[in-house]
Write a structure and sequence with these properties.
It is a single chain. The protein has eleven helices and five strands. The protein has 256 residues and is mostly helical. The protein has one domain: Rhomboid-like (Rhomboid-like fold, Up-down Bundle), CATH 1.20.1540. The strands form two sheets. Strands 1-4-5 form a three-stranded antiparallel β-sheet. Strands 2-3 form a two-stranded antiparallel sheet. Strand 4 and strand 5 form a beta hairpin. The longest helix has 22 residues. It is globular and about 50 Å long.
């Protein structure tokens, strides 16, 4: 079991305002979910709804290998496609929220620093959308609610692996704290997603579980964005401290 707990942030100077805001937004919306259970069914992504542009408002009976199961539904937003955004900030439980936010906290600030605030936010949302569409494509007739930031955060992991492959990630490995390169940590993570996702192919009768297709879709989107950033973006966005540093004569910079 490999469990990341931190990474190398020594080169970061500016606060990661978007990452911090996303952490707060996800936490607040989850608290809202706890207080308003019907909101979870109304604002989650239902593949059938997105594929057909139709809002399901009544409980659906779903036949599974173990029998007939009731899938609660609730009136969603208009248009129903807005659930593709709302579901990105929702979670199915404390463990789901905690795991996603831990990865966002560890890896999000580095990617935001490289992309810049606005580009990072756009990248986060696009990665989440790609992940959702990948999951919908697996079973467009499904009436199972899909929710969580996993697709967007998987995009961050993909971009991080491309942009910072040699960054040291501190992780817990069988009760020992170790430091290993990011490319190994994230490479093992996505390999596990492919392996476990392959095992779920054809299980359309399932009434829940991990959306592996969303993880894989978001990660691929992140890898593509990371490659684009390496090719076309500057090494890092300009900021006030960098401007001050450039204004100081080279002969004096070593005294700072």
């Amino acid at each position: 079991m490999l469990f990341p707990i931190s990474d190398d942030d020594r080169h970061l100077i500016r606060p990661a305002w978007v990452t911090h805001s996303l952490l707060v937004a996800n936490a607040l919306l989850f608290l809202y979910q706890l207080a308003h259970p019907a909101f979870t069914y109304a604002a989650s992504v239902i593949p059938f709804e997105i594929a057909h542009g139709k809002d399901l408002v009544e409980t659906v009976l779903m036949r599974t290998p173990s029998g007939v199961v009731e899938i609660p539904q609730a009136p969603g937003p208009t248009p129903i496609y807005l659930t593709l955004i709302s579901a990105m900030f929702m979670h199915g439980g404390w463990a789901h929220l905690g795991g996603n936010m831990l990865y966002l906290w560890i890896f999000g600030d580095n990617v935001e620093h490289r992309f810049g605030h606005v580009k990072f936010l756009a990248f986060y949302l696009i990665s989440g959308l790609v992940g959702s569409f990948a999951q919908i494509a697996m079973d467009p007739e499904s009436v199972i609610p899909n929710l969580g930031a996993s697709g967007a955060i998987s995009g961050i992991l993909g971009a991080y692996m491309v942009l910072f492959p040699r960054n040291q990630v501190t992780a817990i490995f069988f009760f020992r704290v170790i430091a290993i390169p990011a490319v190994l940590v994230l490479g093992l993570w996505i390999a596990m997603q492919f392996f476990q996702g392959y095992g779920t192919l054809g299980q359309k009768g399932s009434t829940g579980g991990v959306a592996y297709a969303a993880h894989i879709g978001g990660f691929v989107a992140g890898v593509v964005a990371g490659i684009v950033a390496r090719l076309f973006l500057r090494e890092e966005p300009d900021y006030a401290f960098n401007q001050i540093h450039r204004s100081i004569p080279k002969s004096r910079r070593g005294l700072l």
